[in-house]
Amino acid sequence: MKEKEIAGWGRYPKIKAKIYEIGEREEIPALLKHISQGIPWGLGRSYGDSALAQEIILTKGLKHFLAFDPQTGLLRAEAGVSLREIIQVFLPQGWFPPVVPGTQFVTLGGAVAADIHGKNHHHHGCFSEFVEEILLFIPENGILRVSRQENPELFYATCGGMGLTGLILEVSLRLTRVPSAFIRQTSIFLAGLEEILTAFEEHQQALYTVAWVDCSSTNPLGRGILLIGEHAQEAPLKIRLQKPRAVPFVPPVSLVNSWSIRIFNWLYTKQASRKPRLDLVPLEKFFFPLDKWAHWHRLYGPRGFLQYQFVVPKDQGLYALREIAQQIKKSGLSSSLAVLKLFGPENKNFLSFPMEGYTLALDFPYTEGLFRLLDRLDQIILECGGRFYLAKDARLKASVFEKGYPYLERFRKLRKSLGLDKKIQSLQSRRLAL
Ligand SMILES: Cc1cc2nc3c(=O)[nH]c(=O)nc-3n(C[C@H](O)[C@H](O)[C@H](O)COP(=O)(O)OP(=O)(O)OC[C@H]3O[C@@H](n4cnc5c(N)ncnc54)[C@H](O)[C@@H]3O)c2cc1C
């Protein structure tokens, strides 16, 4: 055990915590006996306080591939294995994770716990749709097999349950066949929110869609680029995954501010043309553009940043996004990154985030007045029947969060009945009374 200062990807909040590392599996029962209030930690890519607690259990020791069936693509691996490691081993054989987030540096445990979504949610749903079975360690109960058939309540609570149902030891995941390591990408420049949302509807049949939207304070959400992707058929399967270059240190002040955001957005949208542009791009570049830089979050300086991600039902999309844009403009604050996606129907998990509609993720440098703005945005989202993503949150109020999640009470009851509510806790679970 060592004690150190630690934070999620947004570098807000920072806390001092006791860090325990899992070595051998046999050590887990004794380790968890030791802990009074702890939470598992994968690769720390959740932005806020989902993986923060007085005591943190690092899962990177759970790093073994256990079995793979080349006929069906079913992979069994320990929970500390990352999506990057899966891609490194299985992409050359024509297999790829069925759902990937905007970074490959997440563990299987973290992907299940947040029930992550990708650019194909409108076709394939969340990560858990491809999970056949989980091996879960619960301090009071030992190791349990959890699937849609065995302990189904626990399966629906664990997928999206942010580590609060126990320690995920193993995951059985169905990989998807891909014809190559490349994506045929079409980029379309769009002016105006209405045009952006119409383009999503028009390209719904495409497997992957995502829009990068300008959210600088001058004209928030006023223009963007829609990226449409399909797996390329006639291209190589083998590529060398790039080694990220590091942002070497934390600058004394944030390099991300309203001026740098304006310049970045101007440069980004300037290169786009109204004529759709076709490119053949490596999977890595299409799915994980930010992974080019390790520790890019350091650019936000010592105070860090907050990512704010919500979803609103489709028929409320235009109204909600217009209201959000107006509030951002009024506040004078800018979001450095704004990523818009279309979600398909929700699943049965108690706390999974996606529901049919539009989701927007915004990155705000931590500044005075930010929480006031976000409180106002919360009210717009609630009015529109939307909800918020736990993996990105560091500040929501319990009364706001719970309005979006009708199965929250079942989740709480299950945790209590398994004796998890005292021992397994994060800062977030305490703040939101999960
Ligand atoms: C650049 C970037 C882009 C992203 N894009 C997306 C996106 O497009 N879609 C999306 O859905 N998410 C996205 N995310 C968020 C990320 O996918 C999730 O936060 C994911 O959970 C991080 O996994 P991790 O292994 O780093 O877990 P951590 O951040 O370490 O932990 C996240 C949660 O998982 C729990 N957990 C981790 N391991 C275990 C385990 N073994 N057992 C039980 N619980 C465990 C933790 O307790 C915590 O609650 C993005 C993050 C970044 C930094």
Number of strands: 21
Overall domain count: 2
Structural class, judged by helices and strands? Answer: alpha+beta
Tell me the Rg in angstroms. Answer: 21 Å
Shape: globular
Helix content: 25-40%
Cα(first) to Cα(last) distance is 27 Å
Your description of this structure?
The structure is a single chain. This protein has 434 residues and is α+β, with helices and mostly antiparallel strands. It has two domains: 65-178, Uridine Diphospho-n-acetylenolpyruvylglucosamine Reductase, domain 3 (2-Layer Sandwich); 182-398, Alpha-Beta Plaits (2-Layer Sandwich). Helix content is 26%, strand content 27%. The strands form five sheets. Strands 16-12-14-13-19-20-18-21 form an eight-stranded antiparallel sheet. A hairpin with a 6-residue loop joins strand 1 (2-7) and strand 2. The longest helix has 15 residues, at 317-331. The structure holds flavin-adenine dinucleotide.
Task: Give the helices and strands, then pairings.
Blueprint: E1 2-7, E2 14-21, H1 28-34, E3 38-41, E4 55-58, E5 65-69, E6 74-78, H2 83-90, E7 95-96, H3 108-113, H4 121-124, E8 131-138, E9 142-146, H5 152-158, E10 167-174, E11 176-177, E12 182-191, H6 193-202, E13 208-213, E14 223-231, E15 245-246, H7 258-270, E16 277-282, H8 283-287, E17 293-294, E18 305-313, H9 317-331, E19 337-343, E20 357-365, H10 370-383, E21 387-388, H11 398-401, H12 408-417, H13 420-423, H14 427-431
Parallel strand pairs: 2-4, 3-4, 15-17
Antiparallel strand pairs: 1-2, 5-6, 6-10, 7-11, 8-9, 8-10, 12-14, 12-16, 13-14, 13-19, 18-20, 18-21, 19-20
This protein binds flavin-adenine dinucleotide.
